[in-house]
Design a protein that fits this description.
Two copies of one chain form a homodimer. Chain A is mainly α. Chain A has a domain of 90 residues: Arc Repressor Mutant, subunit A, CATH 1.10.10.10. The first copy, chain A, has seven helices and three strands; from the N terminus they run αααβααββαα. Chain A has a three-stranded antiparallel β-sheet. Chain A is globular, with a radius of gyration of 21 Å. Chain A is 67% helix and 8% strand. Chains A and B meet through α1, α2, α3, α6 and α7 of A and α1, α2, α3, α6 and α7 of B. Chain A binds a DNA duplex through α2 and α5.
DNA sequence: TCTATTTACGAGTATATGCACCTATTATCT
DNA sequence: AGATAATAGGTGCATATACTCGTAAATAGA
């Protein structure tokens, strides 16, 4: 009984999806997935993920720092960062200690963490260069610059 | 006993982190997070997430389609897509049926799903325009084009 | 046709992500 | 000082993501 008069079928224009294929969220997530996989693959031999490398690198840069402050810098939810640190703590790469302000938890990169970061660095470097190469250096620079701008603008709102 | 001669402390150059701050993976994920939150916020009033809007829009575009084929198009892991479809099935927006080839599962957008998509569309559209506006149309177009190029290059490897 | 291989999928496990709600601690106000 | 507000974190819940391993069905090869 298709095509009945009373049938209130949605009238979605086919053109709508062409538009949705340009969705900023969808495309960023898609790119994130494929690039994350590439970085994960690059570091799998030493048991680190791309996100975990970032965690160690950030801890190296900012340590000692509170969880909330680090989360702000990384543009992550506080609770997400707290949980993401857990595997790194279990591996002994990061310590999370009570701060003087006893509400806070202080993130510190351990010596083992520094060594792991050093071990990972050349693998990260290669992956980073590979991606840059695949895109072309100009395109890559332009993309990164636009993405940074996007992040700034979204935070500014 | 710091500074012992035998101490093989990692010699990480401080410049290394400045480099890591440009990590393609980190920056893409950071942008994904913040943009995803914006799209999620935009659709929270109707109980959809940005990712779920994408799911419905893709199902609308490609339905009927097998899970694996849809995953390929969306550049997602097959098992991820299968699981992500579950909440949409529970909500009645999508049906997953047995295919003629009985190994396959066929994804179909239901009438309720079409209605939901139609309801979500203006909210999506606004979020999309907001982001475009924040970045500036030129910058946005350039970024999307670079990201598409990145995805193509990463898949081509 | 019977076997070996390929294909499509699901379940288990682990991490990544963020919201709502709760607790503990500090800072502020009267 | 005591009451109130603000701040830092944690837990529960739900979704997002992908790898490994296992099963069922279709296909290719002998």
């Amino acid at each position: 009984m298709k095509g009945k008069i009373k049938d209130p079928k949605p009238q979605i224009d086919l053109k709508a999806f062409a538009e949705c294929g340009q969705c900023t969220c969808f495309n960023l997530r898609k790119a994130s997935r494929i690039v994350t996989q590439y970085f994960d693959d690059s570091m799998r031999s030493i048991g680190l993920r791309g996100t975990q490398f970032t965690l160690l690198a950030s801890a190296f840069a900012y340590s000692p720092i509170t969880v909330t402050h680090m989360a702000e810098i990384m543009v992550t939810d506080r609770t997400t960062l707290g949980r993401n640190l857990r595997p790194m703590e279990k591996s002994g790469f990061i310590k999370v200690e009570l701060g003087d302000d006893r509400r806070t938890r202080i993130v510190k990169l351990t010596d083992a963490g520094k060594e792991k970061l050093q071990e990972a660095y050349p693998l990260w470097k290669k992956a980073q260069q590979d991606v840059k190469m695949k895109m072309g250096s100009q395109n890559w620079s332009s993309m990164i610059s636009k993405i940074s701008n996007l992040i700034d603008q979204m935070q500014g709102s």
